[in-house]
Amino acid sequence: MSFLAQNSEIFTRFFVGNLEYVLLIISMMMTRMLMLRVVAVSSGVAGTSYSWFWLADPVGTFWEIVFTGVNIGQIALISFRNRSTQFNDEERAFYSQIVPTLEAYQVRRLIAIGTWLDGRPGYELTRQGEFVSHLIFLKSGRASVLVNNTTVGYCTPGNLIGEISIRRGKPATATVTAKECIRYLALEREALHRLMRADPEIALAIDAGNRLDLEGKLIRMNEAALRSA
To answer: Which domain holds residue 34?
Structure first.
């Protein structure tokens, strides 16, 4: 009889016992709450099996079942909230481009504090040296970025405007005006900060969206500099 066959019980117990913790660690690495809960349920099932069949521990089994049940309840709640949330094309663009890691119901909370607006050419979105009142998501059209009345770049659909000032609490470093007719989502500064404090996942998603947007702007600026060189 082979070594593995002789020790199959030991290997199975070792595998199941460690699987619970491996899955728990993996769940902590998930960026979306729904996936975190799903993996946590798998961890709970493995833990329940190990506590009941190998440890014969009723106390451990009970708490593993409670842990699993709580996560199943949270999955049901998130799924219900997501199913009851609908987006139009504008809202879906904001969701996919700025905060794709959030659940649908969280994005609905975020959009609820904002207003969709239109701007004509020349309309001023931010002014250099003044505090920014709204974080702006540019849905359509282009906007000029000016520093000391000199155009240094452009914002295009999908860009955020005012993100540095909103996050750092300092005056705008540039003036941004509509170069053509624009459509945008304006998220009021104080309401956004309250929501970010209330939901850390939304705060993380906004920060990630800001970083990606800034990276995209820097890449475009570098490419423009190379073309003009």
So the answer is: 3-83
pLDDT at 84: 75
Running along the chain, 229 residues long, what does each successive block of 10 average in pLDDT?
Answer: 55 79 87 84 90 89 94 88 85 95 93 96 95 95 93 92 87 94 96 94 92 82 69
Domain boundary among 56, 83, 110: 83
Same domain, 79 and 93: no
Q: Say if pTM beats, i.e. exceeds, 0.85.
A: no
* Distance (Å, whole) CA 214 – CA 57: 53
| Cβ atoms of 84 and 64 closer than 8 Å | no
| Domain match, 55 and 140 both | no
Q: Is 131 found in the same domain as 18?
A: no
- Total structural domains within the chain: 2
Asked if 32 and 107 touch (Cβ cutoff 8 Å), the reply is no
